[in-house]
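Reviewers of the previous submission asked for a worked example of the structure-prediction workflow described in the proposal, so we include one complete record here. The input consisted solely of the amino acid sequence. No template or homolog information was supplied to the procedure at any stage.
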Amino acid sequence: ARFSLSRRSAARGAFAFLYPAGRAEKGMKTLYIDCGMGCAGDMLTGALLELLPDGAGFLERMNAALAGRAVISAAGVEKCGIRCTQVTVLIDGESEEADAHHHHHHGHHSHAGVKDIMAFIDSVELPEEVKCNVKAVYELLARAEGSVHGRDIENIHFHEVGSIDALADVLSVCCLMHELAPERVVASAVNVGSGQVRCAHGLLPVPAPATELLLRGVPVYSGAVQSELCTPTGAALLRRFVQDFGPMPLMRVAQAGYGAGKKDFEAANLVRVLLGESVAPEYLHGCAHSHPHAHE
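From that input alone, the workflow returned the following structure tokens.
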């Protein structure tokens, strides 16, 4: 069912009264990305979208920027009983995800080369910072694809991430990060999934070679889910925006967002993001002394 993103955002913040302002010195605005079920562009878009006060307005602006090349929509769904946002990109009224494996873009829509993608980015009416980030994400993707296939960047044809729906995901995440403007971004270790994934070149091991290369040096693991959980697009977005990978940092959470994947597993197939402020260790020390009987 369709739903009001602004109403859901308000509901997420309904417990703000529990954490009155001014209890401690303002910390660094921090975003934490929980990648316990991997990361894909559409899932990250849905999660970040829930943090905005006017998600519907954001979608209108994105669709205007795409100028009819694609239409982004969002709907409320449940994953293992958790309400979350599922983002869909329609091209000519059809979702490429319908014939995709999990949330990787393996459909039949047209694909583009590096020059085509960069020309499109230059033509979009968005802030320069957003364009810079989108180009940086695609440069990461191009270098990874080039290394895997043994080609120069200029000759890379994006089989998996050059479709318009993938570009819409990257544009959306870069715009959302621009509007949310976190000062620090931290992500958990990344669950890449396991098994095999069907790509343009045939069956490949999970993580796909490009994904593995993009996550080189990042803490990753493979759980029990037999599916591709982290896509090249998701990996490139994490590589671009995340400064540190590890456990959730010491922070005071103000908002949470949940972005749904298309498939259903025994575990909730979603990306969770937490937005709040960093907390200095000495603040916790002070709390312990000011509430000596809190745990009695």
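The longest strand covers residues 82-91. We consider this example representative of the routine output the project will generate in years two and three.
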